[in-house]
Amino acid sequence: MNRRDLLKLGTLVTATTVFGATATSSKEELKSNETKTVSKPLNNKDRVIIIGGGYAGLTVAKNIRLHNKKVQVIVFEPKNIFASCPYSNLWFGGVEGVKYDNLIFSPLEPASKYDFDIVNDKVISIDRKRKVITTLTDSYEYSLLVLATGIEYDYSTFGLNDEEAKEVYAKFPASYNGGFEQLSLKKNIEKFKGGTFVITVPKGGYRCPPAPYERAALIADYFKTKKLNAKVVILDPREKPAAKAKGFLDAYNTLYKDYIEYRPNSNITKIDLDKKTIFFDKFDAKEQEITKESLVFDDANIIPSNKASKLLLESGLELTAEGWGRVKAPTFRSLNDDNVYLVGDVLGEYPFPKSAQMAHSCGIILGEQIARRLNKEDPKEGSVFPHNVCFSLVSKDSGIYVTHEAYQDVDGSVKVKTELFQDIDKKTFDSTKAWYAGITSNIFE
Predict the structure, then answer these.
(1) CATH of residue 53
(2) Do 265 and 352 sit in the same domain of this protein?
(3) How far apart are CA 231 and CA 233, in angstroms?
(4) pTM to 2 decimals?
């Protein structure tokens, strides 16, 4: 099967997957499940179940098998295609040589090479007491469980009810998940004839902090190249960009003075779809006052707040105040279950950026730790810490970047050292391509 066939299959995702909703069960159903026979028992063999086949989940699976050849590893992923979010902004912005094929990969290739299983099914519940997960079609017993469930969308922080959220999602897709969201946003960009194109920055913690700002720059570059009478307006609840602020603002003020309008301290309260109007509270730092404002737009990339999978809450795992997963420092073990690990964007205990590189780096470490634990060896938790590098293009051939290095402080807490490289540099474009080729080949080849 070629990538084009995979792409067609990748659009066939259920509505529950789109909004990240998990099926819920009544108390009677849950009680009934406790007496049901598990359709896929362990049968005296270790089994690691990984929920989520993204950058984190696939990396964990591969690295378990690199260090343990006996354990059964199963990855559950409801989408039947891997469409990368990293690098997608280059495709949106029409960067030369970047095609949608560059974003599409088949997890079947590493699964075959490293001997783990990919199951195209949705996990709807976790019974931690029985160590059983239930999918839409089966139930599986596990020895150890890894949650690499990524993010879900939360449109309620924009004042939208469920029906309004569905309409916003369909018309102005966030494209913070791969697949049909990306295809729809790309089409919207290409058919845009001019006017105001809005990009909203999520409230709270969210996947890839620089992504909305990079996207704004590359879409503005595309409009500029097409000589459209257009403006990209960024509505950000923060007082400055969440990452690489100086670099992005320099690019906006020099490269896109007539094409980008950055509006900080803008807290969206409501979106009127019929009138294509966004209402927001604007905080004036100088006057220390809030004014109510509105913005009429012609098209938009509405990126809502992010949240962790409902599976965490429904299975009783400890969460941070913001709703992300908590773990026992300096490990990836759930704070209240030693047999459950959290990795990737779902992780909230540490000050890690929610990025593909950080997910991949954590996945390499966690995979070996799990393998060592099952080998009855010291897992050496806390001996190695992840790192992150994040490249952001600000034009078709230049960019900026940041690095993060995690470490354990003397008080036992896990912290991150950040180093910024915010001078716009054409060499960063080559580094971006090399990084993407490296991380994807490490997972899929």
Answers:
(1) 3.50.50.60
(2) no
(3) 6
(4) 0.91
